[in-house]
Amino acid sequence: MTTTVDTIAAPWRKRSAASSVGVTVGGAALLLALGVALLGPLLAPFDPVAIAGRPRLGPSAEHLLGTDQLGRDLLSRVLHGGWSVVAVPTLATLVAFGIGAAIGVWTGLAGGHRDLVTSRLVDVLISLPPLLMAIVFISAFGSSAVVLVGVTALFFVPRVVRVVRGATAAVVASDYVAASRARGDSTTQILRRDVVPNISGQLVVEFGARLSNVVMFVATLNYLGLGVHPPQPSWGLMVAENTLLLRTNPLAVLVPAALIAALAVGVSLVSDRVAERLAVDVVAP
């Protein structure tokens, strides 16, 4: 006989099972992409920038993914091309969170006029088209790894500020913070004992969600030729370079594109699972 408890628990079990499948798939995809990016250079059979055979060869025993228009081994370029898609987004997200979290906590604690001015400035910065502004900055300062990290972090700082400021303001408005202030606790004590422990879950989850967005943003810049310069390989750049091979050797495009998707989707699914476990709502980009 079905009880009320069973009726209530059934949807939860379905959601839990679906979430478990999602985190398994996401974790596997993430491990695959990270494994290729980090260990790939050790396994590459050829120099990724050297001519290894005739141009536009199809997959064979010697060249498992074939060769590109210049005769470079595609497998070797894939194995070497993930570093920038992992390192640059990770560093950019860390920088964005370091700066954005500090500003967000500061404004959330301060409130008043300071909070209002910062919030309006954040709204203005978020309204700017990131890709267009990135093109302007990279055209002016070049496309080195440092510039790419800086430009990417710059455009994601306001989004982090908004999330952290909202989380901090919610904690500051709580009764236990009011009690701490009534006891005469300093701002530093309130920050350490009340604010940070209560927003840390939100920060962890938001870092994963933001990292997924940054991966796609950096891959797009590479695709447009604004990131890694040829002949150095990058998954995003390879998708653009090998478009002409799509009919004769689709793996030349599909493999790097799939690895980018695996990295972004894997991070997103894992961060969603963390959000579920911590009962945290992920703020939209």
TrEMBL record:
Subcellular location: Cell membrane
Keyword Transmembrane helix: yes
Source organism of this protein record: Phytohabitans flavus
Cellular compartments per GO CC: plasma membrane
Gene Ontology biological process terms, A to Z: transmembrane transport
Protein name: ABC transporter permease
InterPro entries (UniProt xref): BP-dependent_transpt_permease, MetI-like, MetI-like_sf
Entry membrane topology: Multi-pass membrane protein
Limits of the ABC transmembrane type-1 domain: 82-271
Main location: membrane
Lineage start: Bacteria, Bacillati, Actinomycetota, Actinomycetes, Micromonosporales
